[in-house]
Write a structure and sequence with these properties.
Belongs to the PC-esterase family. TBL subfamily. The protein is of the alpha+beta class. It contains 13 helices and 16 strands.
Length: 384
């Protein structure tokens, strides 16, 4: 993959997480790294699916009322209804998907289940792990001013024909990769697909399309001493914030890169996931939550909007064509969709005793699959 030359880096330096505590240098590399649930799609010059104008000059959705200018009231109403029904009429240059709401739709069925897709980790297989409720799988994201197209697995594979798609990041990004694989693999005959899991690089191949959907483990994106063997104590983690070559060599020649990282960069030792954010003062984090937050413009206390603003500003100034999609707030509403106590730790499912202590053991970072990462991929698919 050919990238525009980055600014001259400072002399190689090694810094510890303890020193940063939320004050990371905002070089292009570091800034591009610091965003949760952000998706940055880096395209090579050969990829013509997105124009540079749509990448660098994103617009908010045009109001439908301004589009429908017919003087005939009936014609105007008909045009309005036609636009609503045409879910594939989506223009990423005009439509922003970040403003909207979650709408419950019992007719919505996930494209896969954690029992049917063989590529899901046990960590995110909530139903298989005993989660009894299912409503969290029937919420769809509805943008305010545009219609988000349904994910079409066959069309997605056609768009990926003769291409490499690589997801890079941490376990949240691994979840999105697994989601994408599960959303397309079921239409491929067994002898036409393969999966090779590795310690750092995992590759799913759709042979008939000569396409690969890959995941590369790089929790900070830049080089660190916790890349291969995870160091639990953040104070002992060491980052080389000006060095990305160790990882970048694995994505040379890739057609589409999807980056996602943030949790590992959060300031402080403890993650901010408590239930008072959404008004449930007596709640135990995300445990037993069964509905999204319905309050408009909800933000969790763990979101650093200043950081997101800086990232977006830098990305829009980059010469390399990049699409920045901030799905953080979309996800923050979904307090009901985390793996909670229906997960594993240390390679083992939580015991009944651990499940009875959700304040200590509930996982309010990772997402059940199928679930919220499917929506990330639906948005990603709309931009392909």
């Amino acid at each position: 993959m050919s990238l525009a030359p980055p600014p001259p880096p400072p002399p190689p330096s090694t810094v510890s997480m303890k020193q940063y505590r939320g004050k990371l240098p905002l070089s292009i590399i570091t800034v591009a790294v610091c965003c949760l649930a952000l998706i940055a799609l880096l395209y090579t010059e050969r990829l013509s699916l997105l124009s540079s104008s749509s990448i660098f000059r994103p617009k908010s959705c045009s109001k439908r009322a301004s589009v429908l200018k017919s003087k005939d009231k009936t014609a105007e109403d008909n045009a309005y209804n036609t636009e609503i029904d045409d879910r594939f009429d989506f223009d990423p240059e005009e439509c922003s998907v970040v403003n909207g709401k979650w709408v419950f739709n019992s007719s919505i069925k996930p494209l896969y289940s954690d029992r049917a897709c063989p590529y899901l980790d046990r960590q995110v297989s909530c139903v298989k792990n005993g989660r009894p409720d299912s409503d969290y799988r029937h919420w769809e994201w509805q943008p305010e001013d545009c219609t988000l197209p349904r994910f079409n697995p066959e069309l997605a594979l056609k768009k990926l024909r003769n291409k490499r798609l690589l997801f890079v990041g941490d376990s949240l990004q691994r979840g999105q990769w697994q989601s994408f694989v599960c959303m397309v693999e079921f239409i491929i005959p067994e002898d036409k697909k393969s999966m090779k899991r590795g310690r750092a690089l995992s590759v799913f191949k759709a042979k008939e399309y000569n396409a690969t959907i890959e995941f590369y483990w790089a929790p900070f994106l830049v080089e660190s001493n916790t890349d291969e063997k995870i160091i639990g104590d953040p104070k002992k983690r060491i980052l080389k914030v000006d060095t990305v070559a160790k990882h970048a060599k694995h994505w040379l020649g890739v057609d589409i890169l999807v980056f996602n990282t943030y949790v590992w960069w959060m300031s402080g030792i403890r993650l901010k996931t408590f239930s008072k954010d959404w008004g449930n003062k007596d709640g135990l984090k995300c445990y037993n939550e069964t509905k999204p937050v319905m309050k408009k413009k909800h933000w969790g206390s763990g979101s650093d909007k200043r950081m997101m603003s800086v990232v977006a500003d830098i990305v829009h100034k980059m010469k390399v064509p990049v699409t920045f999609i901030n799905v953080t707030q979309i996800s923050e509403y979904r307090i009901d969709a985390h793996s909670s106590v229906y997960t594993e730790t240390g390679g083992k499912l939580l015991t009944e005793e651990q499940k009875a202590d959700p304040l200590r053991h509930a996982d309010c970072i990772h997402w059940c699959l199928p679930g919220v990462p499917d929506t990330w991929n639906q948005i990603f698919f709309a931009h392909l």
